[in-house]
Design brief:
There is one protein chain. By secondary structure, the chain is α/β, with parallel strands linked by helices. The protein folds into two domains: 173 residues, P-loop containing nucleotide triphosphate hydrolases (Rossmann fold), CATH 3.40.50; 72 residues, no CATH class. The protein contains twelve helices and six strands. It has a six-stranded mixed β-sheet with strand order 1-3-4-5-2-6, sandwiched between helices. Strand 4, helix 7 and strand 5 form a beta-alpha-beta unit. Helix 1 packs antiparallel against helix 4, helix 5 crosses helix 6 and helix 11 packs across helix 12.
Length: 289
């Protein structure tokens, strides 16, 4: 099964593929989430579903001024194509959510192709799956596949909308495959006269790894590097209120300042950790019988 999807045909499908709860083989992780609220909490708050779920659609994700600023900056980089955008953040920092919001916002003006990096993923596999999205059957010769892909992408971008490859968890790729991917990116940019672009989302260590690799944009310093903004203490209450409201809660935030202080202290600015700590606070207050 291809590991890659186009947003114009399968936005929800690519959201599922991007989610970090999946293993390398693509199967969902069946372990219970530490962010799950128990039955009594859900009943007390009148929730129709779990608020801290992994499959929330783009229009239910939290947006404040900090998120809006990052979305605007990334959208501008994709629009101009002058830089190689690099979105950095620790696991659980919200990179995937930000990518989903970005692609939902500017999907009508771009042709997105999306893949989640794993340690077994190769650059060749990405190229072949991009072609499979556009053409069936594909040639048996891999060199011919690349030429077919370049031709298909030129036709696709003839409407003035660039083709963009988004690689989430790019740091999971082996060094050699990351180098091959950068080389393919350079070749496709030349073939499409700049109308092919790539956005990498990864943990912060990716920047050091990239410094030892080669690409036209890297060597000319044309890299736009952005860190996901941490969920600092003032942002935690609006964030949790939004997630609870999306699940059906209509009252005031059921967490006082002391609870929010504990959540902030334990979360380290990571949204996933904020949700884990909030679930723990609420489950402790209204435990199941």
């Amino acid at each position: 099964m291809p590991v890659l999807e186009r947003t114009t045909t399968a936005l929800r499908g690519l959201v599922e593929r991007l989610r970090p709860h999946q293993r390398d083989g693509g199967e969902p992780d069946a372990r219970p989430s530490t962010r799950t609220l128990n039955r009594n909490v859900c009943w007390m708050l009148g929730l129709g579903r779990q608020p801290f779920r992994d499959n929330a659609p783009a229009d239910e994700l939290f947006v404040d001024d900090a998120v809006e600023m990052q979305l605007n900056m990334l959208a501008e980089q994709l629009r101009t194509g002058a830089m190689l955008p690099l979105l950095k953040g620790e696991q659980g920092s919200g990179k995937t959510s930000l990518l989903i919001q970005l692609m939902a916002r500017v999907g009508d003006a771009n042709h997105f192709f999306v893949v989640r990096g794993t340690r077994t993923l190769t650059a060749q596999r990405i190229i072949l799956d991009m072609l499979r999205v556009l053409e069936r059957p594909i040639p048996e010769d891999t060199g011919e596949c690349f030429r077919h892909l370049a031709r298909q992408l030129r036709d696709l971008a003839a409407d003035g909308q660039p083709a963009i490859l988004v690689v989430d968890d790019a740091d999971a790729l082996e060094e050699r495959e990351l180098a091959h991917l950068l080389a393919a990116h350079d070749s496709l940019r030349r073939a499409l006269n700049g109308r092919f672009r790539m956005l990498l989302a990864a943990e912060p260590a990716i920047e050091l790894r990239l410094s030892g690799l080669h690409s036209v944009q890297l060597e000319s310093g044309q890299v736009f590097s952005a860190n996901v903004r941490p969920l600092a203490r003032p942002r935690i209450a609006p964030y949790l209120a939004h997630r609870l409201a999306m699940a059906g809660y209509g009252g005031e935030l059921p967490l006082d300042d002391d609870s929010l202080d504990r959540i902030s202290a334990s979360a380290g600015g990571l949204p996933r950790s904020v949700e884990t700590a909030a679930a723990s606070e609420l489950n402790s207050r209204w435990p199941d019988d």
